[in-house]
Amino acid sequence: MFSIPKLLVLVALILVVLYGFRIAGSLNRRRQQREAAPDPTPEKKRERERLEAEDLVQCPKCGAYVSAGADHECRRQA
Ligand SMILES: [Zn+2]
């Protein structure tokens, strides 16, 4: 027969397992919601692509390729 302390430990373990399952379930649900989210609008997509890909231009003085909009200081004077 179970003694009272063993029974309490068993109940505690069951609660921990149930709580863990609930946390895992909510995390899983949140991830599925994120994956099921609608695609960004074409405008937002284009904007993100524009930010991810920057045009590089070759510096006429030192030949280094630098991003077009950025201020560039030549390290090596030609
Ligand atoms: Zn330069």
Q: Would you mind describing this structure in some detail?
A:
This protein has one domain (4-67). Helix content is 55%, strand content 8%. By secondary structure, it is mainly alpha-helical. It has two helices and two strands; from the N terminus they run H-H-E-E. It has helices at 4-35, 42-52, and strands at 56-58, 65-67. The mean pLDDT is 84. Strand 1 (56-58) and strand 2 form a beta hairpin. It is elongated, with a radius of gyration of 29 Å. It has a two-stranded antiparallel sheet with strand order 1-2. The longest helix is centred in the N-terminal third of the chain and has 32 residues, at 4-35. The termini are far apart. The chain binds zinc ion.
The general outline is: elongated
Give the % helix: 55-70%
Report the span from N to C terminus.
90 Å
Quote the average pLDDT: 84
Alpha plus pi helix count: 2
Quick one: biggest sheet? 2 strands, antiparallel
Low-confidence runs: none
Structurally, the number of domains stands at: 1
Structural class by sheet pairing and helices: mainly alpha
Could you give the count of β-strands? 2
Radius of gyration: 29 Å
Question: Approximately what portion of the residues adopt beta-strand conformation?
Answer: 5-15%
Q: H/E element string?
A: HHEE
Distinct ligand kinds:
zinc ion
| Strand order across the largest sheet | 1-2
